[in-house]
Amino acid sequence: AQKVTQAQTEISVVEKEDVTLDCVYETRDTTYYLFWYKQPPSGELVFLIRRNSFDEQNEISGRYSWNFQKSTSSFNFTITASQVVDSAVYFCALSGPGGTSYGKLTFGQGTILTVHP
Amino acid sequence: DSGVTQTPKHLITATGQRVTLRCSPRSGDLSVYWYQQSLDQGLQFLIQYYNGEERAKGNILERFSAQQFPDLHSELNLSSLELGDSALYFCASSTTGQGWASPLHFGNGTRLTVT
């Protein structure tokens, strides 16, 4: 079975601080995809990034960066110089082709990030 | 804007009733997925349709059913509603049937409140 754990339930930072959201996953699939989604207060789910299990290169997009480490089954997300607009719930998710997991995203419980001015 | 349209935005109904949630996928997307988000269960996959056919099933109750029509819009029917069905219901779409590999684009959700 697939499982995603986001150990941090809530994080509170002051604007311009860097913040890292942790994500640890479990899967028996050798090929799988990892995702991060953002859910702002307005409620929609916004896709941020997809990473496949064969690509361990770190990725940077503006103030966002992602660190994928297969050896520790982690896919952490860092926001540099956080801003108030980054306040949201962030979800890490996993998908793979195996068995009953086919076609679905398994989400972590989410991390509530609050950035104070 | 993800391009996925869900209606209605809010729905308030009583226990025992039946409701229908509607979803229009992004233009060109053939797959539609339904997810339920509740405080106790988090985000749970319910069901996937690809080009009109059921492709994968998750934790969907027997009281719930879905279908995808020839124009690719989808409906999620919830019947014999219980208080515990109160949740945010998301529809998502993707280009291919391989939902496990494609990024899903989510609609804004329908917030269902059962009283």
Radius of gyration of chain A: 14 Å
Largest sheet features of chain A: 6 strands, mixed
Number of strands of chain A: 12
Largest interface: A-B, 27 and 25 residues
Give the SSE string of chain B: EEEEEEEEEEE
Name the poorly predicted regions of chain A: none
Q: Would you tell me the structural class of the helices and strands of chain A?
A: mainly beta
Helicity of chain B, as a percent range: under 10%
Rg calculated over all Cα atoms of chain B: 13 Å
Percent range of helical residues of chain A? under 10%
Short description:
The complex is a heterodimer of chains A (117) and B (115). Chain A has 117 residues and is mostly beta strands.
Mind explaining what this structure looks like?
The complex is a heterodimer of chains A (117) and B (115). Chain A is built from no helices and 12 strands. Chain A has strands spanning 3-5, 10-14, 19-21, 24-26, 33-39, 46-52, 59-61, 64-69, 74-79, 88-95, 106-107, 111-116. In chain A, the strands form 3 sheets. In chain A, strands 2, 5, 6, 10, 11 and 12 form a 6-stranded mixed sheet that branches. Chain A starts with a strand and ends with a strand. Chain B is an all-beta fold and 115 residues long. In chain B, strands 2, 4, 5, 6, 9, 10 and 11 form a 7-stranded mixed sheet that branches. Classes of the chains: A mainly beta (117), B mainly beta (115). The interface between A and B is medium-sized, with 27 and 25 residues.
Task: List its salient traits.
heterodimer; A: 117 residues; mainly beta; six-stranded mixed β-sheet; four-stranded antiparallel β-sheet; 0% helix; globular; B: 115 residues; seven-stranded mixed β-sheet
